[in-house]
Every structure is written in C-alpha cells, then in structure tokens.
Amino acid sequence: MKVLVTGANGQLGTDLCKVLRDFELIPLTDKDIEISDMSSVKQAFSKYKPGIIINTAAYVRVDDCEDEKDKAFSVNALGARNVAVVAQELGARLVHLSTDYVFGGEAEPRTTPYTEFDTPVPLSIYGKSKLAGENLVRHFCLRHFIVRTSGLFGVAGSMGKGGNFIETMLRLAKERDELKVVNDQVFSPTYTVDLARKIVQLMITDYYGIFHITNRGACSWYQFTTEILKLAGITTPVVPITSDQYPQKARRPRYSVLDNSHLRLLGMDDMRPWPEALKDYLVARGHIA
Ligand SMILES: NC(=O)c1ccc[n+]([C@@H]2O[C@H](COP(=O)([O-])OP(=O)(O)OC[C@H]3O[C@@H](n4cnc5c(N)ncnc54)[C@H](OP(=O)(O)O)[C@@H]3O)[C@@H](O)[C@H]2O)c1
Question: What is the DSSP letter of 5?
Fold first, then answer.
C-alpha cells in the first residue's frame, strides 16, 4: 500500500515517515507540493497514485495567521479542499490533521474535555481556517479521518514555528533567572511519535470520521514547563502568569483538552500519559539519559 505524506519534513511528518516503514512511503515536502495550488496537488498525487494520503501540511504560525488571513485560509482551508478533492478522485483514504484550536470560543468557559461530538467554536483565524479545512475535507472526501490533536512536541521541532515549546523553555531556563509562563491555558501535550503510531493503526481501519488523538492527561503551559525543567534537572524558578500578562496576537482557548472518545469507543485509546511521553522525548533529544 502506497502512503503519501505531505509536510514530510515537519514535526509530525518526520515521525510519521519513521513509523510508516512497513508501507511504500511517498514523503512530500513543500518543495514537492504546494497544497494551496490545485494543479500542484493533482500533479503530485496523480504521479504516485497513493492508497492513503496523510495531510500534515498547514500554516501553523497561530499569531501570524491573524495578520495573514488570506494565507491561513488559502493553505488551511482551500489547501485541505484541494487535497480532499484529489484524494476522492483517486479513491484514496485521507488522514487530515486538525487542531484543538477549533474549540474554545463559547460564551460559557469550558472545564471538561471536548469530544468529537461537541460543536467547534474557534477563537482565532488559525482555528477558523483549520475548521473550514475540516468541513471541506468532510464534504469532498468520503473516506476521511480528521485527526484533531494538541500541543505537539517532536524531535524534528515544528518547521513552521522554528522549534518547539520544550526546546524554547530549556534554552530560556539557561539564559534567564526565572521563567514566567501562562497558567490559564489548559491542553493535552502530545508526542508526535505516539500520535504517528496511532494514526498508522487507525488509517487501515474503516472507522472513518473525526478523531481526537492526544496523550492522556492535561496541564497548563506553566505546569508543562515545571515538568520539563524537573525532568531535565534544571532548577530555574517558574512563575505562573495569566494570558493577560502575556499578550499574544491570536486569542487562545483557556481550556482545549480533547477527550479521545472515538478511539475509546473503539477500544483503541491506549495513549499514554503526557509526562511519560515527555520523558521519552527528552531522552530522544539527548537532554536526559
Ligand atoms: N504543532 C502543534 O502544536 C499542533 C497542534 C495541533 C494540531 N497541529 C496540526 O498538526 C499538523 C502538523 O503540525 P506540525 O507541528 O508537524 O507542523 P510543521 O512542523 O510546521 O509541519 C508542517 C509542514 O507542512 C509544510 N507546509 C506548510 N505549508 C505548506 C503548503 N502550503 N504546501 C505544502 N507544504 C506545506 C511545512 O513546510 P515549511 O515549514 O517549509 O513551509 C512543514 O514541513 C498541522 O496540520 C497542524 O495544524 C499542530
């Protein structure tokens, strides 16, 4: 079975390519395909005729999306549409990556995990563009798996964001006397290796639809940071602050924990707790033995 991966050199794409070794892999980077250009998508997909397409490519700079709305919708919504249309034409299955940031915009603040059956209300342009992408995928490709995940960390680091949160905190902890980190945004950190393995299990089933896939448990960015530094043996103090004390261009959900309900109903939710995954990541990056 041929499996085509877009964003193959990205944070998730890199680990997907590693766990797809039993398949005939077609890894495409942004040099091989421009998903916002239908003719580029048609050309790339029809050349390889994959049975499964995993679309990780996206415009992921959440704050920049606020200023570059056209680019956000062009890549995250219309790019997803292009991929879905051509996947359907080829009779391929499509795994499309989405985000917890499709949630969080309700008037009543949420305090319990979101299931796949909750109605998304995004807060930011990034969230809106990713939700538009989900809807277009659902409309144009019958055999789809829409995978919402959150707070990704992977050894490759996010290409779009120029690294990842863990590496930034480890660097800043060495440079500064103390770190101030937001304590009122709660989410589920997720290791790209664990996510990639679960996607590979899922994509060969007939359980199409929307899936939340995150590591187990939840924390704030402050709690995440204290665990990173604790595991790395770094004693720099971490001070909790509010989102208002750390203004960012895009509004972010105060709570965007995803419940892997669809996986659980299928008996497939064996995602491990995020601190265990974090430890493995720190070992893989050589930060701890
Ligand atoms: N990172 C997170 O915390 C997070 C959380 C929830 C959901 N997600 C979703 O998970 C997916 C993977 O995220 P990631 O962290 O692996 O991102 P990433 O490291 O930035 O990887 C995305 C890849 O897509 C490529 N790309 C971007 N625009 C493209 C385009 N128009 N055409 C073709 N390729 C393009 C990028 O190449 P260049 O960088 O060279 O442009 C990059 O290699 C995304 O769909 C994202 O929305 C991410």
Answer: E
State whether residue 162 is helix, strand or coil. Answer: coil
- Residue 55's CB is within 10 A of a number of other CB atoms, namely 30
Which pair of tokens denotes residue 233?
Answer: 């043996």
Domains of the chain plus CATH, in order, are 2-220+247-284 (3.40.50.720)
pTM of the model: 0.98
Q: How far apart are CA 135 and CA 131, in angstroms?
A: 6
Task: Give the containing element (helix H, strand E) for 2.
Answer: strand 2-6
Of 257, 123, 132, residue with least CA distance to 185? 257
- Ligand 1, pocket residues at CB < 6 Å: 6-7, 9-13, 29-30, 33-36, 56-60, 75, 79, 97, 99, 130, 149-152, 158-160
Q: Which helix (H) or strand (E) holds 93?
A: strand 93-99
* Best of 134, 152, 168 for a ligand 1 pocket test (most atoms within 8 Å of beta carbon): 152
CA 166 to chain CA mean position, Å: 15
* pLDDT tens digits along 75-131: 999 999 999 999 999 999 999 999 999 999 999 989 999 999 999 999 999 999 999
- 41 by DSSP, 3-state: which? helix
Query: Cα 91 vs. chain centroid, distance in angstroms?
Result: 25
Q: Are 102 and 130 in contact (CB under 8 A)?
A: yes
In the prediction, which pLDDT does 163 show? 84
